[in-house]
Amino acid sequence: EAPVAVLPNCVDKAIFQVKRKPCEAYTIGCAGSVSHAGDWSSAGKGIGEWLRRNQDAQMHFIGAQFADMLPGSVARGGQVFFTPWTDDVRQFYRMLCMDAGLAPLRDSVFNRSKSDLKVLEYQALGIVPVASDVPAYHGAIRDGRDGFLCATVKQRAAALDALRDPAVRAR
C-alpha cells in the first residue's frame, strides 16, 4: 500500500517569458487534440454562427483540425487557419496566435475527470479563456474577471463580442 499523492496542475514559469506573435485580426482559437471532437460537435455550430456575423475575425485551431465542424462557408472562407502540433513546448506556446482561447467541454463522465490545465496555459500567456461552464474550470476562472464561463451558445457569443475590445482583454 504505497502512499498516493494528487498534485495540482501548474505551468512551468518559463511560459511567462514566451513572446507570442501578435494576431493580425481579432482571433479566437482552440488548442486541443482529437479527443475534443465531441466537445466541438456541440460548440462548433455556435462558433460558426459567431464567425459568420464577425467576418473580420479569425479562428485558429492548433493540434486538431475541427474546421469541418464549422459551417462550410466559414471553414472555406479564409477566416479559419490551422497549425499542427509541435513537440517543442515553447514553440507551441509561441504559435498560439489568439486573443480569446476556447475551452469547450460538454458535460460527460469522461470530461468530469478533466483538469483546468488548458485554461491555466491560456491565462499564463495572456489569452483570455472562454470556457464551458463545467466543474473542471470553476477553480481557475472567476467569470467575467479572468475569463468567461459559458453554459450556452448565447453566453459564448456575448463573451467573444466583449473580448473584441482590447481593454476588456487587458483586464
Walk me through the structure.
The relative contact order is 0.17. The termini are far apart. The protein is α/β, with parallel strands linked by helices and 171 residues long. The chain is 33% helix and 16% strand. Helix 1 links the parallel strand 1 and strand 2. The chain has a 6-stranded parallel sheet with strand order 3-2-1-4-5-6, sandwiched between helices.
Order of helices and strands: EHEHEHEHEHEHH
Shape: globular
Strand content: 15-25%
Low-confidence stretches: none
Q: In angstroms, what is the radius of gyration?
A: 16 Å
Helix segment count? 7
Ends apart, CA distance between termini: 47 Å
Number of strands: 6
Helix content: 25-40%
Mean pLDDT: 87
Largest sheet data? 6 strands, parallel
Main structural class = alpha/beta
Give the strand line-up of the largest sheet.
Answer: 3-2-1-4-5-6
Outline of this structure?
The protein has helices at 37-53, 72-76, 89-95, 117-124, 135-138, 153-162, 166-170; strands at residues 27-32, 58-63, 80-83, 100-103, 128-132, 148-150. With 171 residues, the protein is an alpha/beta fold. The chain is globular and about 55 Å long.
